[in-house]
Amino acid sequence: MNVGMRIKKRRKEIGLSVDELAKRLGKNRATIYRYESSEIENMPLDIIEPLAEALKVSPAYLMGWEKEDKPKILTSSYKFIPNPISAGLPIDMEGLTEYQKIEVSDEVMGKWAGDKEVFFIRVNGDSMDKVIPHGSLIAVKPVEKQKINNGDIIVFSENGDYSVKRFYKEEDTIIFRPDSHDPSFYDYVTNVYNDDLIIHGKVVAYIVELE
Q1: Across 28-187, where does the E strand assignment appear?
Q2: Is the Cα torsion angle 187, 190, 196, 201 positive or negative in sign?
Q3: pLDDT per residue rounded down to tens, the chain (211 residues)
Q4: CA–CA distance, 29 with 18 (Å, rounded to integer)
């Protein structure tokens, strides 16, 4: 397996698109395709280390200097909020800015591996248990409001109370909807003019602890 094949194989293993890899390296997508097709035979030394870092492998593995068939399993560190967040109606979340650290496998995080904006928090409650069971760890990525789609799972707050729900927008109405086996949970409805409403991010991954 040559360098280009290793780049392409590893990029796909961690779920990284060509455009995302190009952005991390400050290159264009055409350059990444050239790397992967081995059109660039003598890869610049100053790109090997950042490329290896983006792909979460060692430069030695990337260049074929290591004999291992697979790269070592690597992890990245993320902010972890120790307060559990409610999967029911919003609850008070004092101390939200008090972060700890958590190590998560890059294989688990896929294309979000190493993203410095992603933070983790634990879910408390059953209103999202069709998708995210009680006690799960969720990875939250801050996103711009215009990039949120109907059906996305969102962490939001209002007057300091935090919750996680599916997001829907119908004209000026915003609906935060549970996704639960329990029919007693109900929609939380507000509107785009609510200045107290803050959307903190979209859930991009979650980890379930099985009994």
Answers
A1: 75-86, 91-92, 100-105, 119-124, 137-141, 153-158, 161-170, 173-177
A2: positive
A3: 788 888 898 888 878 889 989 988 899 989 999 888 887 767 777 888 888 888 888 888 888 877 655 555 678 889 998 877 876 555 544 445 567 889 898 878 888 888 889 999 999 889 999 999 999 999 999 998 888 999 999 999 888 788 999 999 999 999 999 999 999 999 999 999 999 999 999 999 999 876 6
A4: 6
- Are 178 and 128 in contact by the 8 Å Cβ rule? The answer is yes
CB count in 10 Å sphere of residue 171: 7
With beta carbons less than 8 A apart as the criterion, state whether 175 and 151 touch. Answer: no
Number of C-alpha atoms within 13 angstroms, CB side, residue 7? 27
pTM > 0.90: no
The most distant pair of C-alpha atoms in the chain lies apart, rounded to whole Å, by 63
Rg for the chain, CA atoms, rounded: 20
Between CA 152 and CA 157, with CA 153 as vertex, the angle to 5 degrees is 120
